[in-house]
Design a protein that fits this description.
By secondary structure, the chain is of the alpha+beta class. Helices cover 25% and strands 36% of the residues. It is built from 8 helices and 23 strands. Strand 5 and strand 6 form a beta hairpin. It is globular.
């Protein structure tokens, strides 16, 4: 019996020592390891934000539309396929599919021009059961925006208010609404990832403005749909993506203020023309400029120009450095091109140039493109 008690005491002592040594290697239970509990204030803030998203989605519900277009198949192509391959080619085929939104209650819709390009029949749907024929009113291919009018008699529609895209901030919450992959009234949420994103060209056409970048998921079919702030105001038109779309790609929206500047012209109908100087320019600090002996630190130097071009007729010549356009200081050649394209054909532009050491001012009646 005595041996039993000795063994028991010895075992307890050894267990205590081993337990103490192991405890030294265990991570202490600090305050940071404790689960973070949501406070009442945090829960209220999250609920409030969620309610705001719901309100914006409801505001857009009746205003966002899907747009489907069709185009005729050339008869020569149909006859060729039928004669040589025995195929029956339909007279019409789907052209494009996208989104849009009412900005006036009498049936006027804003969308991207590329959604309508190449088509002659436009269908605008409010939901899966309600669809109207629409006609193209005005369009601007370079800005990639168009206005269509729904043919619905005297029916009134719920219009979305146009906000102020100049006031948005990086990190601000935004809501994108559209019909990605034909899924009607899809709502995605994100933030303004960046402002003023610029591109030299898009789909082979010169880019004439900067864009709003957002991480709100945008996919094929979203084009033409609104990007909304948390007041339910349109601050952009979802236009294109980089990457594979959605969460993988990066979405870009046309700032609504760019559209507002030409909205009256769009409503008057027809194609919006853009200004042209008829010159080829380079950065004032480029190799081409140095070969011409240009020493200017900023601006755009004229390296070539067309005979009888608007710039030539106004008195500008190769070697002139354009330093101001309509009183805006010209940064470089790309900046000048954008400033010119933001004007309409026929507009009169005030241009200040540096010719040698002399500053000269000209008024140029812009050509059209």
């Amino acid at each position: 019996m005595r041996w039993f008690w000795l063994v028991l005491v010895f075992g307890v002592a050894i267990g205590t020592i081993i337990g103490y040594q192991l405890a030294k290697f265990q991570k202490p239970n600090t305050q940071t390891d404790a689960p973070v509990l949501m406070t009442a204030a945090t829960a209220k803030s999250v609920a409030s934000l969620s309610e705001t998203f719901i309100k914006v989605a409801k505001i857009a519900e009746e205003s966002v539309v899907h747009i489907a277009t069709t185009a005729p198949v050339p008869e020569e192509y149909r006859l060729f396929r039928q004669f040589f391959f025995g195929e029956e080619v339909p007279e019409r085929v789907p052209a494009n599919y996208g989104s849009g939104f009412f900005f006036r209650s009498d049936g006027y819709v804003l969308t991207n021009f590329h959604v309508l390009q190449g088509s002659d029949i436009i269908k605008v749907g409010i939901d899966e059961q309600t669809e109207f024929t629409a006609r193209l009113v005005g369009y601007d291919p370079l800005l990639d925006v168009a206005v269509v009018k729904v043919e619905s008699g005297n029916r009134q529609f719920k219009a979305l208010p146009l906000g102020n895209s100049d006031r948005i901030e990086k990190g601000e919450w935004v809501v994108a609404v559209g019909n990605p992959f034909g899924l009607d009234k899809t709502v995605t949420v994100g933030v303004v990832s960046a402002k003023g994103r610029e591109f030299e060209e898009l789909d082979g056409r010169p880019s004439i403005t900067s864009y709003i970048q957002t991480d709100a998921a945008i996919n094929p079919g979203n084009s033409g749909g609104p990007l909304l702030n948390l007041k339910g105001e349109v601050i952009g038109i979802n236009t294109f993506i980089i990457g594979q779309g959605g969460n993988i790609g990066i979405g870009f929206a046309l700032p609504i203020n760019e559209v507002k500047r030409i909205l009256n012209k769009l409503l008057k109908g027809g194609r919006i023309t853009r200004g042209a100087l008829g010159v080829t320019v380079a950065d004032a600090d480029s190799k081409e400029a140095r070969e011409l002996g240009i020493q200017a630190k900023g601006g755009a130097v004229i390296v070539r120009m067309a005979f009888n071009s608007p710039a030539y007729l106004a008195g500008l010549r190769p070697g002139d450095v354009i330093v101001k356009f309509n009183k805006v200081t010209v940064k470089d050649a790309s900046h000048l091109r954008r400033l010119v394209l933001q004007q309409s054909g026929g507009d009169i532009a005030e241009i200040e140039v540096l010719r040698g050491n002399t500053r000269l001012n000209f008024k140029v009646t812009l050509g059209s493109r």
